[in-house]
Amino acid sequence: MPTGARDARGASTLTDWIAAYLEHLQARKLAENSLRAYRRDLESIASELAEIVGVTGDELPVESVTAQSLRSAFARHAASRSASSVTRAWSSWNGFFRFLVVEGATSGNPMPVVPKPRLTATTPKPLDGEETPERLLRLVAQGARKAREPWPERDLAILSTLLCTGLRSAELLGLTVSALAGRRGERRLHVHGKGGANRSIPIDESLEKVLEDYLETRKRRFGRRLPGGEPLFVNHRGEPLRRGGLQYLVRQSLRAAGVSDRVRRGAMVHALRHTFATRLAEDGANAAEIAKLLGHSSINSSQTYIDVTAREQRLSVRANRTHGVLNELSRNPESE
């Protein structure tokens, strides 16, 4: 039980237990963005609970949180949020209560009786157009993206890494210089993935060369060696690249290449990850192989790319004008 996590009545407060759980998650080396999301979800619902009960979060004993109060808190929380946001908050609280049960702070997990939105199945959103990724890389390499301090080698390295490895934004931003490991021609990227799951992704010699060229220009720009613990990708000031900077870089690059209209709604950096996965499926990779490379915890997510690819291939076959003639002949055999 965390130190100081008891009030005058001897009951652990919700605020203190949330702090203990976040400390537990931090010890698992979760990505910074994931920790922020957990904190936001936990504190938001805790605020609703405290208001429902009529106390502050610091005064609310965890034992007083009931299924009924949780249902009310989630109903209020859902009023101004999307289904996916509510579902994420539900998962955060489900994990929180599992932690409380293990720690002996509560006798059971009430979350199974708290309703959560039923999400529609999501479909991959790769870049539209067969040659779009290649056009994007060629034009960025040529300096099409205009910036105050142009750095096409860095831009190309980032876009190439996303398109050739399928990394998530947080995974790319979490890479260090030493994450690029192995002998020349056999390099791999060691990735700290979602949920603390690490994986190693082999990279082709072409991407290896792009990354080496970028690192060489980085040394020249800032005139210093690159210790292995430094972030692999930095901004034009040599500071770690952040999520907002990455999104801006990708958005401006797509616009400069004239392909911003080929990004589907709701996708940006993730469109490059989806493009990588879709091409794997098109080239015959199975769900297990895709799951391993993308860091999926379940092959069900990876199977989506295969199912969508198969469906689109069938639609393409049906679009062949020859089938129109075959349909006419099947309806009127005597026309021969």
UniProtKB/TrEMBL annotation:
<keyword id="KW-0233">DNA recombination</keyword>
<dbReference type="InterPro" id="IPR004107">
    <property type="entry name" value="Integrase_SAM-like_N"/>
</dbReference>
<dbReference type="GO" id="GO:0003677">
    <property type="term" value="F:DNA binding"/>
</dbReference>
<feature type="domain" description="Tyr recombinase">
    <location>
        <begin position="122"/>
        <end position="318"/>
    </location>
</feature>
<keyword id="KW-0229">DNA integration</keyword>
<dbReference type="Pfam" id="PF00589">
    <property type="entry name" value="Phage_integrase"/>
</dbReference>
<dbReference type="InterPro" id="IPR010998">
    <property type="entry name" value="Integrase_recombinase_N"/>
</dbReference>
<dbReference type="InterPro" id="IPR050090">
    <property type="entry name" value="Tyrosine_recombinase_XerCD"/>
</dbReference>
<keyword id="KW-0238">DNA-binding</keyword>
<feature type="domain" description="Core-binding (CB)">
    <location>
        <begin position="12"/>
        <end position="101"/>
    </location>
</feature>
<dbReference type="InterPro" id="IPR013762">
    <property type="entry name" value="Integrase-like_cat_sf"/>
</dbReference>
<dbReference type="GO" id="GO:0015074">
    <property type="term" value="P:DNA integration"/>
</dbReference>
<dbReference type="InterPro" id="IPR044068">
    <property type="entry name" value="CB"/>
</dbReference>
<dbReference type="GO" id="GO:0006310">
    <property type="term" value="P:DNA recombination"/>
</dbReference>
<dbReference type="InterPro" id="IPR002104">
    <property type="entry name" value="Integrase_catalytic"/>
</dbReference>
<dbReference type="InterPro" id="IPR011010">
    <property type="entry name" value="DNA_brk_join_enz"/>
</dbReference>
<dbReference type="Pfam" id="PF02899">
    <property type="entry name" value="Phage_int_SAM_1"/>
</dbReference>
<protein>
    <submittedName>
        <fullName>Integrase/recombinase XerD</fullName>
    </submittedName>
</protein>
